Amino acid sequence: MDTVLTVRGLAKTYAGDGIDVLALRGVDLDVTSGELVAVMGPSGCGKSTLLHLLGGLDRPTAGSIALGGARVEALGEAAWAVLRRREIGFVFQFFNLIQTLTVAENVELPALLVGTPRAEARRRCGELLDRLEVSARADALPSRLSGGQQQRVALARALVNRPRLLLADEPTGNLDSTSAREVVSILRQLCTDGHTVVLATHDPRVAAAANRVIQLRDGLIVDETRLDTGESTAAVVSSLLRLEV
Amino acid sequence: MGRLTLKLAFSGMRQRRTQSILTVIVVAVSSGALTIALAIGTIAGRPFDRTFDATNGAHVVATSLPGGVPLDALDHLPGVIDSTGVRPVMFTGFTLEGRRYGLRLVGVGREAAAVSRPLVISGSWPRDGEVLLERSFADFHHLRPGSTLATQRALLVVSGIAVVGGEPYPRSQPGLGLATRSTLTRVAPDANEWGQIVGLRVADPPAAGRVAEAAARVLGSHAGIGTWIDDRATATEELETVTVILSLFGGLLLLAAGAVLATLVGGRVLAQTREIGVLKATGLTPGQVTRLLVTEQLALAAVGVVAGIGAGYLCTPLFATRSASLLNAAETPAFDAGRGLLVATVVLALVATFTFVPALRAARRSTAEILAAGRATNRSRSRLGKLVDDLGAPVPVSVGARGSFVHRGRTLLTALSLALTVAAGVATLGMEASLDVATTPGVAPLVQGGETPRFDPVDDDAGEAGRLRPIVYSFDAVLLFVGLVNLVATLLLTTRERVRDLGMLKAVGLTPRQVTGSLVSAQVVVAVIAGVVGVPLGLAIFRLGIGLAGSTDEFAYPSWWSLLLLVPGIVVLVAALATPLARRAASLPVADALRFE
């Protein structure tokens, strides 16, 4: 399998009021193509920071990030933006859809940004909305949608440019259990289709869908578990719950 | 609740420091603009009557030529209640910067008379060898107390400047000076070269014509007789253009001040919707929330009002002195407590209203609904955005166009404020065109002395038009400033509310430059609307002014190409102002933007 993402010694320090906060303290990570990696850990352990650094939403204090073999940690804001629109999809806990755009416009936006012809962007958008079962709401504004529907739209937007890597920060954190199960199922399917997903989550049931779970504590990876070993979901969840304690 | 309200209000001001400062600035700008507008309104309103009242003007004025009939008998005509007494009048000339100008010297006593009493606004009453100059004449030639006038026989020192009724110089020529009889003797020793003038107050001013007829019967055809009614009609007609233009600009300033207040104060309350929800969730009633917001806004507004009225009074003379001189109106006092109180009352009442209505409306919604809609946006699709899409605009422009009407009311008020600036531009162009039509006329002196030129060598551009332009351009500058303050306020509020959206745009791949472009596009859309609305609005206001003046002879419409240039002009200006602010907003790290509450 190709290595999509390689991270070495990744660190991030936030300057506080006289006290520096060490959010990440040297993370090493390799993610291969088609893999679904779940990052777990308690609040404040650095999950979101890790995803933000991987997506270029924030700058690391130290360490390296390679995407498809190319070092990217030193890229400027504009270069990161271009990289994101082509290679990285993002899904957030609070959906972060642009409220002034309709569902379809939200999904088409990244495609149009990379220069995709409007008709082609519309076709891809239609396909994704169909696949994620929200095509009936294509002309609605995000504020008219339920949380689950908004997250599906966010997923469609993240996927419209067929990115190499999908980063999902607590994608089910704001959803009811039914919607959460549906989103997890979609993420799992994406990996089967060849996408690579790194997701941060509190929820062991979500993490149970991953190929691999890494545990973060105080900015460091303290444990790593492979889950694609044929164990039952219940057993996996149970083992993850033990890790969480 | 009183102490709690104050505590929460002041903590709110501290938390939202930038917005608080912005509120103070906007209220100060509005108050200053209102102060200036009211001062100009006072001056432009019935200028002849106000000066006539202030100087206790004569209802009937009679003049006789040198060696003509004596005027003493007129004081005893039926209906006459007071008089200036018969005064000598003579015409001479003086040289200034190598050019000859006429001067009408009227003899006065050691003290001002009760009738036609000049209002000395600088310097002092003339002593022997001195001359007190009429204001518009002195202003036109830049003469000040201490300046000298070289007549053929004597050098006269300017003792002071005074407001005197009648038409201003250079419409009325030659210029007027007041001097003692002894001074007149120095200028023209032969009293046979002097004429006479007398001003009469009558018991029934509207019937001054009857006294004038009686005077004419006494004097025959050897004297000139005029009434204050004729003078007022002439002055009103001659100064119609100036009066209408000044009134129009005063009105525009009032509207702009109201629009900027409504935009910021109302917009700020709307931006606090989520905080209203939090306050309600912690147990405050809708009434308490409303009182809290009104207290907060009024406290900030009070600071702004004091600063604005202070700045207004400092700036008012820049407009008022020139305007008063132009209209020959009595000047407004440097400080007028009544006007200050009126401005403070109007502004604070507007602030209270613009706060109360949206605050109460928000406070009455359910707490959950408010919290959920903390970053409330327009709930309908943007037709404007679709139109921009259809025009094939780049993605950032399209996104920006959709963002421009997120808060429809606020955007419309900003557009209105900018449209008023454009309208002011149209009115200025109208003024320029009208001034080209209404050039300075010459008025023959009543008595023609040997050395008196018939007309002063006055350049048209240096006349009324030349003095009106700086006033109008100053108005334009203030209106533009008010409009741009409104734009900056809107931009800052909008940017603050859309921080998460901006972060999101960057997260999906917009570069900082594209985000900047998107934000600027949103403001450019507003500017285009302002331009498209402002031009016809300005023409409508200008036409209304012409209608009020009741005559079209003195006015001309601006050229079509100059009107067309106004729209790109305002767009470029808005883009130039919005770009650095947008760039700053776009530079916020994505992760910080997405965490923004």
Description:
The complex is a heterodimer of chains A (245) and B (597). Chain A is α/β, with parallel strands linked by helices and 245 residues long. Chain A contains eight helices and ten strands. Chain A is globular, with a radius of gyration of 18 Å. Chain A starts with a strand and ends with a helix. Chain B has 597 residues and is of the alpha+beta class. Among the domains of chain B are: 53-228, no CATH class; 381-597, no CATH class. Helices cover 61% and strands 12% of the residues of chain B. Chain B has 20 helices and eleven strands. Chain B has helices at 2-15, 17-44, 47-55, 135-140, 181-187, 208-219, 228-238, 240-271, 273-281, 286-327, 337-364, 367-372, 383-390, 395-403, 408-437, 464-497, 499-507, 512-549, 560-586, 590-595; strands spanning 60-64, 80-83, 87-96, 99-108, 119-123, 130-134, 148-150, 155-163, 175-180, 195-202, 223-227. In chain B, helix 2 packs parallel to helix 10 (286-327). In chain B, 53% of the residues are buried. Chains A and B meet through helix 2 and helix 3 of A and helix 14, helix 17, helix 18 and helix 20 of B.
Key words describing this protein structure:
heterodimer, A: 245 residues, alpha/beta, Rossmann fold, 6-stranded mixed sheet, 8 helices, B: 597 residues, alpha+beta
